[in-house]
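Contributing new records

If you add data, match the layout below exactly. Sequence lines come first and carry their own label; structure lines follow with theirs. Keep one chain per record. Anything else will be rejected by the validation script.
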Amino acid sequence: MIDAGLPVRAFFTTRDGGASQDPYGSLNVAVHVGDDPAAVDDNRRRVSRAAGADVTFLTAEHGIRVAHISAPLASAPPADVLVTTTPGVALGTIAADCLPILLHDASTDAVAAVHVGRPGLFAGAIDAAWAALLDARAAEAGPHAIRAAIGPAICGRCYEVPEDLREEVARRHPAARAVTSWGTPALDLPRAAEARLGELGAREIVRIPVCTREDARLYSYRRDGVTGRHAGVIVHP
């Protein structure tokens, strides 16, 4: 587990400590990648024990849909943003190169778990999560009460894309423009997310400086193809 550095229970999982066999070894939490369902259920229970509450894991669509969770669900509705205002509810995002982002609003203690890939970044998933936390407030409060943690993701040195795609994304998120370590066009999604959160007024941004493609402790679709997913988990206090 990697601590997310937020003032609530929040962490990112690694591949270690689960029941799945290769190529999903061992703490895969995704149900859609071909892993043994019994192993995934076991892994999710292990993550829930670490969270101290049953975790509701999102079902990503690579979009901006928001789902509000008031009680633990075995299967959340398709959405790339889960938000809760209910004490004790735990939310989980999943990824294997995309960004797992966790948010906490100190003014309400509402929390969000967000999945942000390239399409979601471009469409506004971070903005959708931010707006959902602001909408959860009953009284006026400044945006600077929101803290964010950006989990392990593929870095700009490794995320090669066609040049026209890089430029399309960079027109909206200039910080995303990057070059791979071998000199080709790339996108730096973590840097772009950090920049956008700063623009929105995040009080504090914790960024886990780990590249999923470079670090074998984590799942990477770009590196491995068939693989599992790690999680970002946050619990409403």
